[in-house]
Amino acid sequence: MAMRTRRKSETPSGEIPMTPMIDVVFQLLIYFLVTMKPVDVVANLDVFRPSSQEQREQTETPPKMIRIAIYADGFTINDKPVRLEDLEGLIVKLASYDKAQTIMIMCTAQSPHEKLVQVLDLCAGAGLKNLSVVSTN
Amino acid sequence: MKRRKKRAVDNAEINMTPMIDVVFQMIIFFVCTADMDRKAFDEKIRLAMSPHGPAEEKKDPRTVTIEVDKKGNIQIFRTPYSFAAMQQTLHKAVAEYGQTVPVVIRGDAETKHADIKRVMDAASGAGLWKIKFAATKEVAGTVKK
Questions:
Q1: Are B120 and A135 within 8 A, CB to CB?
Q2: Lowest mean pLDDT among A2-6, A132-136, B83-87
Q3: Would you call A45 and B57 a contact, using CB atoms and an 8 Å cutoff?
Q4: Are residues A60 and A89 in the same domain?
Q5: Is-contact B142 A40, C-beta < 8 A?
Q6: Contact B26, B91 (CB under 8 A)
Q7: What's the domain range around A75?
Q8: Which residues form the domain of B118?
Q9: Contact status of A38 with chain B (Cβ, < 8 Å)
Q10: Does residue A47 fall inside a structural domain?
């Protein structure tokens, strides 16, 4: 009987004290939570580049093609100037006829990259897949 | 008699030490890998917003990400590249993995298209017609509408 009680009392003294370790773990957890910066969700917009061979063949452009031009100060769609707000509606309307049609995006050298991404974003939003980016001067 | 004693100890408590060791290892692993992912890109580049764009798919390990900052400087994996060096890198990537290597261009919103065009032309020159532009779909911390 005496043996029994001694054995029981021995176990707690053999254990590792958990409290300080849990304290440290919480400190670490709080540190990482505070230092962690959430990462932005990144989108990838696919485009096609005309190959040099294709460019030579493309003298006769197929008629079913939407041409969007991007200038440093605005956009044109099929040679008509539009504002960005109106462009969205137009793209959605044109996309409703045929989603597989080719969109040729002509971008001038001086326009900021943001404008190109805006147009690509609208096309992606309308579900258009065949996007070609052509650079002009 | 001996057998009974052993079983009693087993039932009384689970040995925590190895589990805690493993948990710590995992914490350190995840912290290190999360950091590495962030360090691969220049945080000064402010990507354009693209709320409709398709979210980044599962990453192809062959992906070549070319960063172009406001002034048109080219960086790959935070290493500044000259235009010729970038061309060489692309050619090497094509030679090694074929023409299906995904190319992602991370251009700053204010970068002139001429600078992006240079990079795109280098990619087409190497035989890569399919190019992706990186854009911010969702700023972290904003509530989805």
A1: yes
A2: A2-6
A3: no
A4: yes
A5: no
A6: no
A7: 52-136
A8: 43-145
A9: yes
A10: no
A12/A62 same-domain check: no
Q: What is the pLDDT of residues B49-78, one digit of tens each?
A: 888 888 877 777 888 889 998 888 998 888
What tokens does B27 get? 């914490």
Please give the Cα distance from A102 to A63 (Å, whole number): 10
Q: Chain B: give the shortest CA distance to residue A54, in Å.
A: 11
Within-domain flag for A103: yes
Average pLDDT on A16-40 reads 82
Chain A residues in contact with B120 (beta carbon < 8 A): 49, 133, 135
pLDDT(B3) > 60 = no
Q: What is the reported pLDDT for B33?
A: 79
Query: Is A42 contained in some domain?
Result: no
| Predicted pLDDT of residue A12 | 56
Q: Across the interface, do B112 and A110 touch by the CB < 8 Å criterion?
A: yes
Question: Residues B32, B58: one domain?
Answer: no
Residue of A nearest to B103 (CA): A46
Tell me: ipTM over 0.85.
Answer: no
Judge: A47–B131 Cβ closer than 8 Å, yes or no: yes
In a domain, A45, yes or no: no
pLDDT band with cut points at 50, 70 and 90 for residue B145: very low
Verify that B90 and B130 share a domain, yes or no: yes
Mean pLDDT, residues A34-59: 68
Instruction: Please determine, for residue B10, whether its predicted confidence score (pLDDT) is greater than 80.
Output: no
The pTM score is: 0.70
- Which residues does A58 contact at the CB level (< 8 Å), separation at least 6? A50
Alpha helices in A45-112 (DSSP H): 52-57, 84-97
Q: How far is B95 from chain A (nearest CA, A)?
A: 18
How many angstroms separate the first and last alpha carbons of chain A?
98
Give the H or E element holding residue B93.
helix B83-97
Q: Does A52 touch chain B (CB under 8 A)?
A: yes
Total domains, chain A = 2
CATH code for the domain in which residue A92 is found: 3.30.420.270
